[in-house]
Write a structure and sequence with these properties.
By secondary structure, this protein is of the alpha+beta class. The protein has a domain at 62-223. Helix content is 32%, strand content 30%. The strands form three sheets. The chain has a nine-stranded antiparallel β-sheet, with helices on both faces. It has a six-stranded antiparallel β-sheet with strand order 5-6-11-9-8-12. Helix 3 runs antiparallel to helix 4 (175-198). It starts with a helix and ends with a strand.
């Protein structure tokens, strides 16, 4: 009897220890790439899960915003809504992410393909969508022929799905024009939701349809600051974090994974801001936030996409995109066209 009691007491101690593990403890997962997830860490209706994995060695590329600030990358207008020209005149690689918004030109654009821009690249055509309808001229004192900055990432799952489908080469009855209309509608939708949640319009007088100018709204930035204070340091604590998954209102929305912790850290602030913006736009002030899903759900989200049948397509002549399209998730993996599969530069996963 005494032996049984000791066994029972030991089991109780183990169960108590498990229950006392911190919410952000590492989750044991079994996804095909060997990633390990931790979390969630939450604030309000936004939950973040960190993806841990091996970090590729070597120099960390510049982000588009870093390169534009250093004036080593030019983003030029060529008079077509769905295309801009990028040129890297510097000596470092520059990472471009699908979802990067560039401000200026004849209309603000969102770049729709992830790629690595080589040093001294020459002019490279990159597919884009307009995130500002109606304008086709200089705005204020801006240069209509050049884009001035890239300080935000697209905060709309609906628009990201449209861009992913286009990058994957999926047919659309209306073609590029139909997808552009969908992107415009998603911009109007997020502007409307943000205005409703914040209690005042986020549309800027200089251009009421500009998503970029809406993202610079002072009231929105103050709301974002609360989330940032709670969540941003969590992504800077460990050197093996290479990506993240986020959920809004208890449902997984999307994920981004990078080949190194260095590149993740460079992208983290703007990634988190975009996730926060999506969460604020979907916030219901009249109810308690839904519970965050367990880490196993976030892991399954990544694994489900990785297990789908894959196809490969090209974006221009320099980038290959591997697409995994399941019933509930679409994922895209980008890499230089001439590089082996192991040299991928970005993985993104979007819930349907």
């Amino acid at each position: 009897m005494f032996t049984r009691w000791r066994i029972f007491a030991a089991l109780v101690e183990i169960l108590v220890a498990i229950c006392l593990l911190p919410v952000g403890a590492h989750a044991q997962t079994d996804n095909p790439d060997g990633y390990r997830l931790s979390g969630p860490v939450s604030h309000g209706n936004l939950a973040i899960y960190f993806v841990h994995g091996a970090s590729r060695s070597g120099p960390v590329p510049l982000t588009l915003q870093e390169a534009m600030e250093k004036k080593v990358v030019e983003v030029r207008e060529i008079g077509r809504v769905n295309e801009v020209l990028l040129e890297n005149v510097g000596n470092e690689e520059v990472f471009i992410q699908a979802g990067d918004i560039v401000k200026g030109g004849q209309q603000d654009r969102v770049l729709s393909v992830s790629l690595m821009l080589a040093p001294r690249s020459g002019a490279v055509s990159v597919a884009s969508y307009c995130v500002e309808s109606g304008r086709w001229s200089a705005r204020g004192g801006e240069d209509a022929h050049m884009f001035s900055s890239s300080s935000a990432i697209l905060p709309s799952r609906r628009a990201k799905l449209e861009m992913a489908a286009a990058a994957a080469g999926q047919a659309n009855a209306g073609g590029a024009a139909s997808r552009q209309q969908e992107v415009w509608q998603s911009v109007a939708q997020i502007q409307g939701k943000l205005s409703s949640t914040l209690g005042s319009s986020v549309a800027a007088p200089r251009s009421q349809t500009s998503l970029q100018l809406s993202l610079e709204n002072g009231r929105l930035e103050r709301e974002q600051a609360q989330y940032l204070a709670a969540l941003e340091p969590q992504g800077e604590n460990e050197g093996d974090i290479v990506g993240y998954v986020f959920a809004v209102n208890g449902k997984v929305s999307s994920a981004d994974i990078y080949p190194s912790n260095g590149l993740f850290r460079k992208m983290w602030h703007e990634l988190l801001r975009a996730s926060i913006t999506e969460a604020i736009s979907e916030r219901d002030a009249g109810s308690e936030p839904a519970p965050a899903p367990p880490a196993a759900v976030a892991d399954e989200f990544i694994s489900r996409a990785a297990g789908a049948q894959s196809t490969e397509t090209r974006a221009g002549g320099r980038t290959r995109i591997e697409v995994n399209d399941s019933a509930k998730v679409i994922s895209l993996e980008s890499r230089p066209a001439a590089a082996p599969a192991a040299a991928w530069v970005h993985r993104t996963y979007i819930a349907k």
